[in-house]
Amino acid sequence: MSVIDWKQRGVARFEPGDRPALEAFQRESFGSDALQLCPDHFRWLFEEPPGRDVDGPQLWLCKRNGAVVGQQGGIPFSLKVGERTCRGSWAIDLMVAPEWRLRGVGPALSETQAGAADVTVSLSMTDAAYKSYKRAGWLDLGSVPTYLRVLDPPRCLRVSPYDGGLARLVASVGKPAMTAASLATHATARLFGARLVEVERFDHRVDALWQDSAAQHGVIARRDLAFLRWRFDSSPQAGRHRRFYVMRGETLLAYVVLRVDPWKGEPVGVVCDYLARPGWLMAAFALVVEQARRERMAALMCRTLNQQAARPLSVLGFLCLKNGLRTPTRMMARPALDQPELKALVGDPRQWFVTVADSDMGFRGLGE
């Protein structure tokens, strides 16, 4: 059966009356304690994002005989591609009931979502979703690296999934060298007048930062005040995030969003999002590394795709784990069929700026 047939025979956008059937499907598919079943999370994610569709939430269902047998969620966002601003949609929570798999439900759902945006992107997908997108011709952008900055090697070694001679060497001699490097870079940042200021909420200054920073990235989701207030300040998990400004005088040079997660009994700092004016990324991370060190975190982690960050983070002592802590964070994208000119930039991972603030990567902590 073709995708068009499925679109005509049961794939439609979520409506309030679908809630009981959807909850039954999600409870069976994701578990009774799934985040998808939280009413506050549902309202925030599907009803409140900036740029939400006038047609309703970006949540599509496939129903047969009144029961939901598949779902595809989307998070609308504004995507800068070169000099253009496009309608983007993060593909999330593609799920099909086992008895309906390989019967066209998954492709029909993803095709329907793709029709609502200029560019559809998926991050951290399941193996089944990856295979489905691959068959549908999505662009495979590889994986999003995880950068790990060890702050206390002995404590990291105790909880690390890695072992061997290199890990033991880092544990025995790495701390003094890395601490010295951190302090030196931190001192340099302070010498140029940069300081780290924790704020309770984002304010209008981030709009100017976005305007001055966006041009250095070929493909990046918009990070203005409207987005940041929705993603962090209005989130049901707002209290888990700490917001830092990197200031010089009255000028905002960068922001960093930090979360502290427990990992096997040790506190690990997670950089959920960041944005810096040209030339200030290293200073921003140096200040955050020193903040994490002072607060006795065992490590600092940043999952990001940003070619401009690779060298500064390496200089600051971050290890690049291309396959993440446990499994690779795959990334795929699909430009609209009627806009082939987007393919060159969108299909090049070197052009992308991605953090865990994008899509649904940052919804769960390290130990969840």
Q: How would you characterize this protein structure?
A:
With 368 residues, this protein is α+β, with helices and mostly antiparallel strands. It folds into two domains: 3-143 and 329-354, Gcn5-related N-acetyltransferase (GNAT) (Aminopeptidase), CATH 3.40.630; 146-321, Gcn5-related N-acetyltransferase (GNAT) (Aminopeptidase), CATH 3.40.630. Helices cover 34% and strands 30% of the residues. Strands 1, 2, 3, 4, 5, 6, 9, 14, 16 and 17 form a ten-stranded mixed β-sheet that branches. Strands 8-10-11-12-13-7-15 form a seven-stranded mixed β-sheet, with helices on both faces. Strand 12, helix 10 (281-294) and strand 13 form a beta-alpha-beta unit. Helix 6 (153-159) crosses helix 7 and helix 7 (165-191) packs across helix 10 (281-294). The protein is globular and about 65 Å long. The two termini are 38 Å apart.
